[in-house]
Amino acid sequence: xxxxxxxxxxxxxxxxxxxxxxxxxxxxxxxxxxxxxxxxxxxxxxxxxxxxxxxxxxxxxxxxxxxxxxxxxxxxxx
Length: 78
Description:
Number of strands: 0
Oligomer: single chain
């Protein structure tokens, strides 16, 4: 899941830079370090989202266990 999330996040960051250049009507490949930087930030954000979602699910299952309820369905895959 980590590699997929990183690639989706990286593609989103790269796409944001391309879109910003297109909106300003400058060449799409202008300042290529921004493309790389936003790709890396997107990779980090994609992985951070997966970690956040996993931690949230663990917290919810802990609260459900304290109340005597079963864990959420399909939560064993995390």
